Amino acid sequence: SAVISQKPSRDICQRGTSLTIQCQVDSQVTMMFWYRQQPGQSLTLIATANQGSEATYESGFVIDKFPISRPNLTFSTLTVSNMSPEDSSIYLCSVFGEPSTDTQYFGPGTRLTVL
Amino acid sequence: GENVEQHPSTLSVQEGDSAVIKCTYSDSASNYFPWYKQELGKGPQLIIDIRSNVGEKKDQRIAVTLNKTAKHFSLHITETQPEDSAVYFCAARLGGFKTIFGAGTRLFVKA
Question: Which residue from A73, B1, B23, B28 has the least number of CB within 10 angstroms?
Answer without folding.
Answer: B1
